[in-house]
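Dear Dr. V.,

Thank you for agreeing to look over these. As mentioned in my earlier message, I'm a first-year student in the group and I'm still getting used to reading structure tokens, so any feedback on how I've presented them would be very welcome. I ran two proteins. I've put each sequence directly above its structure. The first is here:
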Amino acid sequence: MATIFSGEKKQSASLDNISLKGCLLQLEDRVSLPAGESIDLHVHLDPAAPDFDIKVKGFVVSCADGQLAVEFVEVGLESFQHLLRLVQFNSENPVDIENELSQVAYNIADLDKA
């Protein structure tokens, strides 16, 4: 389960897919969030232990047919450690995760234009 915070609104979703850079969520309510909107996302690893939530800041990549694609832009250290363990645990090839960590997530030339 996950909770999406967008402005003053909050909604629940289920996690369909997750990587170190983003995720795909199934929305419980068929609401639409515009591409580019900033959100906060809490992925609940254990509903009884909110201290273990993965808390990220991201933006909406797309929202259609009850699915929300999110790209992560900020992940705290503790949340990143939980995210990394989750992705490694569910990966068929943990070496791929190590390779993903060594790749630059963004084109530096594009950052200079922003």
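The second protein is here, in the same arrangement:
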Amino acid sequence: MRYVPAHAYSEVYKALKSPNWFVRNQAVKASIGVLSKQIDGYLVEAISDDAWWVRFNAASILAQKGHHGQSLLKEVASNHSDSYARDIASHFFN
């Protein structure tokens, strides 16, 4: 697992809001090393991103976060308003 120092968390959060999908995608990938529960909300939000790679990687990172991440994926798969988000979340817990 990669580690992101706490002082850099704000940069990851900011990159997750970038207008460029490839920047958001790299931020999602870096988020595995963010040891803060706040990142989970950003990842759940990223599951409904316009870019498929961002959605895929956000779900993948949540899947790697153990029981808590799996619970979030199940919630997204069951209740998210975006059908693409539901679909990608379902892929990772089935």
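From my reading of the second output: The chain has one domain: 9-93. The CA atoms of residues 39 and 89 lie 17 Å apart. Does that match how you would interpret it?

Kind regards,
E.
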